[in-house]
Amino acid sequence: xxxQLILYPMVAHIAWVAFLYVFLTIVRxxxxxxxxxxxxxxxxxxxxxxxxxxxxxxxxPLFFHIICVLLIVLGNTDPIQVWLAWIFVVGRLIxxxxxILTNNIRLRGLVFTINFLAVLAMWFFLLI
Length: 128
Known about the structure:
This protein is mainly alpha-helical. It has one domain: Four Helix Bundle (Hemerythrin (Met), subunit A) (Up-down Bundle), CATH 1.20.120. It is 85% helix and 0% strand. The protein is built from 7 helices and no strands. It has helices at residues 2-5, 7-33, 37-44, 47-56, 61-74, 79-101, 105-127. α2 crosses α3 (37-44). It starts with a helix and ends with a helix.
C-alpha cells in the first residue's frame, strides 16, 4: 500500500508543472496576441522568471521521479520515503513562488537546498 502513496507526490509535481505551462502561456499571451501594451509591460518582468522556473522543473526533479519509480519497482517504499517526497514537492512549490515573485536568491537557494537534501535522503534510504 505504501508504494502507491508515493504516486501522490509525483502526480502533485506533474500537476504543478502543468500549471506552470498554463501560467507561462497566459503570461506570454499579451505579447504573442498583441493584446494591450500595458498588459505586456506588466508581465514582461514575470515571463522570464516563469520560464526559468519551468526549466528548473526538468533538472533536479528528474532524480526525484527516478527514485520514486525505483522505490515502486523494488517495493522499498516506506513512510519516510513518502514524507521526503512530500517535502520535495512542497519545497518545489515554495521554490517556484520565491523564484517567480521575488529576486531573493539567498532564499531561493535555501529552499532549493531543502529540495536537494530531500531527494538525496530518498536515495540514501534506498541504498541502506
